[in-house]
Design a protein that fits this description.
The structure is a homotetramer of 341-residue chains.
Chain A: E1 4-9, H1 13-23, E2 28-34, H2 45-49, E3 52-54, H3 58-62, E4 68-71, H4 78-87, E5 91-94, H5 102-115, E6 119-121, H6 129-139, E7 146-154, H7 161-166, H8 170-186, E8 190-198, H9 203-207, E9 213-220, E10 225-231, E11 239-246, E12 249-253, E13 261-264, E14 269-271, H10 278-281, H11 283-298, H12 307-326, E15 330-331
């Protein structure tokens, strides 16, 4: 196979982003796109680039000229599609989360393992050059053994109630990236989760049974610690910072600003705010995660962000939810008998 | 009274620092110093500056030419001295903590209230220009209502075992500054404390029954949150940063570097490390806290950092200890029936 | 015209960059590429994207299905091609400099004016978001009237002797960007140039009759000042900073780092170096300058970086050379009787 | 001599600052202060600290209990006082400049040499920890051989016309610090000076025959370069930055901010401005320069900032003035037949 032939299931914002990136890549070919509603794609420049559009994802799964599918459809459709795609021998890239249910995610991963296809979960931030460099620095031993990992993760503004209701809640929709980041940076197993959370940004979120502000403390197998702070509303932009503090130093990644400009006035010195749109902030990361997926297939290499990574992050999201609801620390093994590392 | 006449009880490092600052102030006069062991002071330039040295603090308390005492002796001597000094009508500045026991601290504060003397606790970081500016920014409403307060507080290296054993443990000795900082910045009451802690830096600390690494989550009356991360060993220096994140922005104070110099090489860009000695980092804060004490007395104004502030910070330290030992969240009112705000 | 049809003359590094950007744009179509030597393009993915390749640029100029040409060939070929392309009614984007001779550049601009085609010079840095924001800040009056403009411009390493010999020298090849930047930021006319320069980086450069280090002072019509410092070798990367200082403040743009990562060790705090490859540093600027050219044609708008801008920057390069050779300040009007602003 | 006994000649702002620093030092004793007008000192706390005040500086020079004098009187009085003090065997610290005349400064230095007393010029910025670290970095060879040194030096606001008229002009009053800094950082001899200057801040300054904005290019013996940019008015504060760029890297010192606080709003990120009062910005430098003087005497060591340093900086100030007036580069040896390094 010299060029990977891909189909995209789900033509929403993320699906269209992946489509655009595929079209600019010479090692991947976008063959088809499926979506229940094709209005967003019909008549667009995307339509001209693909062999066909369809409202039925099964067309892509049956298509012998498609090697891999990108699943970008609503979460509640993921698992069935994964099972079918795996059975059809398609390699699979699936947006997070795999599912809202531990058992369903297990079902999906079992199908993937049985079919022996490549499976990658869309935790794009692992591919961001800043977080990648933090991870490399830690793995190279430059800061010694991690003692405390801190992740700050705040969105510019909260999503609407309709989204809150179907997104699985803040821990599954937003913090799940941070759970993965913490696993990625530490390379350790989390054994316990404790959540303090609140509904401070918008009462509508609380009415949906969700939270918008949280401090999440995680304990690793070796007793070292991590803490995540989340908010659904940071007026100054997208705030995503990490720090790994070890016994021999510390390494952190800061926000990328909209520009490097500095203005000095008689009042103050002004710097630009952080980038405030995730498509802007992670532009390169989305490209790199796709390239990584393609290389794993074409070069028959290990996928960098696996189904297991997806599963583990989801477990932590469930543990966080449980901790918040029951107002206690939750030992991860309560959720799964066996923690597969 | 045009100039305040002061006696220092306890001629250790902190006592000598306060002495030096008094000598450089024109509104305060250092009359006498007491310490059980006077070796560190006898024959020094300090000896020439004072009217007398003594091994008996009661000499200072009886001295009609002393208006105020600075209590810089070991913690276990504080309360008795406070009670006697108050009874003698002396204004009192006491280094933190007031005592290791809630009841004992209450006893001291009752004596102070009865005698109606000024009483200030030595939480010097409140007087640091950076933290002061953060506090002013919050109080001015510039960032809206605080949702998350974060404090990072790491020492360059752990103290020896002998110190660990008599210091009351990390929460009482080190985190207590952070408990006070969080009260100072939020101007809110803490209702709950949850601690995850570990002994990662040096086994000797664990053998002393103490911890050296911690993540402490605090919940305020209004449901907003705060988190402190501590470590007894940051190889790069004294790391003390705060951030207050609100619904209308965020304000943070960063470390002060040893210099503003930047070196660019073919490998990297190097900046100077943070200041690594507390006497250097808080040089001006120590001067300002003393001036504040003196002004409160000479100008008959409110003390900026009161006995109540000391008491509340100690309660949080006790709550933290309890949370760690019992592995659960501790509601602050478990420790005191009535939380005096 | 819904999509602009473009031909690229000169398939070297810059030509191929423009080609790649055109291919990713939906409003431009790359029809053909010409180069005396097609080895670098034949068999590449570029070949498949275009209608044809040719060794004769006249094929592009005669081609009725080409609306505009991008001239990316060696400088000494620019003017003849411009004259022919203009005569054929093609819009023209020309890489800097237009020519090494004031008269030749005039000849080119006269042909363009006569044919009334759009003409843009490739001063890509004007389109960099950081420099653009500096310019917007100045034009909005935020820093008052500019008094001093400073430009630092240093390359990671010097080009080889063969390049030095045919590039027109440092002022024409490298500083010319800074002359344009200074005109762009100030929106004022330069009346005088004074150069101090030296050969400090590599003797070979001096043997070529060129310099590698310079301080260039410029005086504007209104008496305000500007200074450029150049070096052909900055070991830490591509160093391109500007500052506009006015009577009401200052605005500056700093380097973009390779990442936002910060590592704290017991020795130092390390930040990443500036980006060190011009294709990386100005990736977006190259895209934006192309879009600007296309929009000027399709929307019949003013070109943002005109032939006059190219001409003026070249005059300053010549003035700089003269100042260095004759060791005196050079009044710009010595080179042209009439300064067209 | 265990403690140095000092007299201060000139009780203006700088004299009083030195007085305050002496009083806080244990190795120096302030014996007396002289000033033509003693109103600023009589009745102040300073009066109580000294043995006597006098309107006649000769009292200090005749006083056998004074070992050294600090000359902080108006510049036009310096040389006569130096000659007399040297003849009386007093060590001398003299504020800059020594005089407004090359011949007069020579006369003063000859007297000092003949009397073999210690002589230090008040270029306090050499003692600033940031500039000191830049200098140390250069001398350690960390950035290779300096190619370009840049100094930015801008005051928060211009002095009144009365001051302008008696201060010797901007080059002698303000830039002279930068001339010394450049000599200090490079450790090389300047051979040529070229000035472009203007009167842009306040017409009154021009009416006094002075400038307020300048770009000054200096050439060293080895052909390497330096550039200073000055302005009498930076609305955002005291702007004093240096950069030494060499063939193996670069080192720079940036401004010290009023605090380390950062505020993020929906508009911008705000940092504090640079310190805006020279007594604040150079507080420690003034202490260190005094200690250096005292140590040179008590320890019989080399003075760190010598009369020769003062002389050389003044020569450059004269060369700058000449360059501006005659609108040409000035070779330093035009002003002195022999450049003493």
């Amino acid at each position: 196979m010299s060029s990977l032939r891909v189909g995209i299931i789900g033509a929403g914002r993320i699906g269209q982003l992946h489509a655009k990136n595929i079209l600019q890549s010479s090692s991947v070919e976008l063959r088809a796109i499926s979506d229940v509603f094709l209005d967003g794609v019909k008549g667009s420049s995307l339509e001209k680039e693909v062999a066909y559009l369809t409202t039925d994802y099964k067309d892509l799964i049956k298509d012998p000229e498609i090697d891999a599918v990108l699943i970008c459809s609503p979460t509640d459709t993921h698992v069935d599609i994964i099972v079918e795609a795996a059975a059809a021998g398609k390699h699979i890239f699936c947006e997070k989360p795999i599912s809202f249910s531990i058992d369903e995610t297990k079902r999906a991963l079992q199908a993937v393992a049985k079919a022996n296809v490549k499976f990658q979960v869309g935790f794009n931030r692992r591919f961001d050059k800043n977080f990648r460099k933090v991870s490399d620095t830690v793995r190279a031993g430059q800061i010694g053994d991690p003692h405390i990992i801190r992740v700050t993760s705040r969105d510019p503004e909260a999503p609407p109630a309709s989204y809150i209701q179907r997104s699985g809640g803040m821990f599954m929709d937003m913090t799940i990236h941070d759970f993965d980041m913490i696993r990625y940076l530490s390379n350790k197993n989390v054994v316990e989760v404790y959540v303090k959370a609140a509904n401070l940004v918008d009462p509508v979120i609380g009415e949906c049974g969700d939270v918008d502000t949280a401090i999440i403390t995680l304990t690793f197998e070796d007793g070292s610690l991590a803490v995540i702070d989340n908010s659904r509303k940071a007026v100054y932009g997208y705030d995503q910072r990490v720090e790994v503090f070890g016994n021999n130093g510390a390494v952190s990644a800061n926000n990328e600003r909209l520009s490097s400009v500095e203005i000095s006035t008689d009042q103050s010195v002004l710097l630009d705010k952080p980038k405030n749109f995730f498509l802007d902030r992670y532009e390169d990361a989305y490209v790199d995660e796709l390239n990584s997926f393609v290389e794993a297939i074409l070069g028959n290499k290990e996928v960098e962000c696996t189904g297991e990574d997806g599963f583990q992050a989801e477990i932590l999201a469930h543990a966080a939810r449980k901790s918040w609801e029951e107002k206690r620390a939750v030992v991860v093994s309560e959720l799964v008998e066996e923690v597969v590392g």
